[in-house]
Amino acid sequence: MSKLILLIGSNGQVGKELQQTLEPYGNILAIARPAIDFSQPDTLRQVIREKQPQIIINAAAYTAVDQAESEPALAQVINATASGILAEEAQKQGAFLIHISTDYVFDGNNCRPYQETDATNPLSVYGKTKLAGEQAIVQANSHYLILRTAWVYGSFGKSNFVKTMLRLGAQREEIRVVADQIGSPTWARDIAETITQLIPKLNSEIVGVYHYTNSGVASWYDFAVAIFEEAQQLGFPLKVQRIIPITTLEYPTPACRPAYSVLACTKIAAILGTHAPHWRQRLRKMLKDWGLGTSD
Known about the structure:
Blueprint: E1 5-8, H1 13-21, E2 28-31, H2 42-51, E3 55-58, H3 72-93, E4 96-102, H4 125-140, E5 144-149, E6 152-153, H5 161-171, E7 174-178, E8 182-183, E9 186-187, H6 188-198, E10 208-211, E11 218-219, H7 220-233, E12 242-246, H8 266-272, H9 279-290
Helix pairs in contact: 1-6, 2-3, 3-4, 5-7, 7-9
């Protein structure tokens, strides 16, 4: 009998991709809002006790980084309290929990890629609540895999950096983009495929925290330039003529973001036996697959 996989947050960028990559496993229960309310996390206990899954994948989160600064209690409930409850219930069921976290648990003061063992020091409410979720999982569950990723974009979801740039690029001749924040753009499908590849390998020996992003590094400015170059080659109607690099100070936001949040991914590469593809290559693939401008 195949194991029941409970996918929570199935309507998000990664969750939608997971529904497709997990299809070969067959026995998938995908749930998301409004069927489940993360602001009432005790409902999670009910679902897990009723369904008794062997594997739980938590792809749900409060991800509105700036909005979290004015809604810290809600972000805490969704990112931390709910994650802890999932871990507690998974432990009681003997289920393995896979949880998606973020590069925002770091402060960005490094000058080399962050290892899983590096000290955390989040700068924002979002980062702090995601770290609190990680800590709750570690305390409550002995069978978990926390997967930190970064700069996620994809075909699904209402908004991400790629979709925002394409929308603005069709409307404006000039766009100003922050050039002093460095990270690794990562396609949601690659995260989903990585999680799917990990499932057959789940055992007590791979419990812990892992980093996964596409390889290579870029600033938001570099990423924007690449988006427009790739989109132009694919025939997307763009109005933009100039992309102006600016500093973080020139683009103030409610939440502080790490200036450098490149993640070292050698630990997960050893488990998977392969290295992640380069972000530019995957951006091109995503835009081709999406069909540029198709509806969600």
